[in-house]
UniProtKB/TrEMBL annotation:
Pfam families the record matches: DUF2180
Lineage of the organism: Archaea, Methanobacteriati, Methanobacteriota, Stenosarchaea group, Methanomicrobia
Protein name: DUF2180 family protein
Superkingdom of this protein's organism: Archaea
Gene source species: Methanofollis aquaemaris
InterPro entries: UCP037465_Znf
Length: 68
């Protein structure tokens, strides 16, 4: 799998990870490691945000979107 962001820039770089949100392949230069909130609760909506966060690999676009 190749890095999607590099491919858009005309480069060919092997992906080292996948964005947990959109599934985009990412090289180490374009992957973003974020600690994402965890929610407890069931269907239809999570009821409570937990104190712990979970480390995740995101693409730059999803990392920005999750902060908004």
């Amino acid at each position: 799998m190749k890095c999607y962001v590099c491919a858009q820039e005309g480069k060919e770089t092997e992906a080292a990870g996948i964005c947990i949100v959109c599934g985009m392949g990412l090289c180490t230069r374009h992957m973003v490691r974020e600690d994402v909130d965890l929610w407890e609760g069931g269907y239809p909506f999570p009821a409570q945000k937990l104190e712990k966060k979970l480390p995740r690999i995101l693409c730059p676009e999803c990392a920005v979107a999750l902060k908004e």
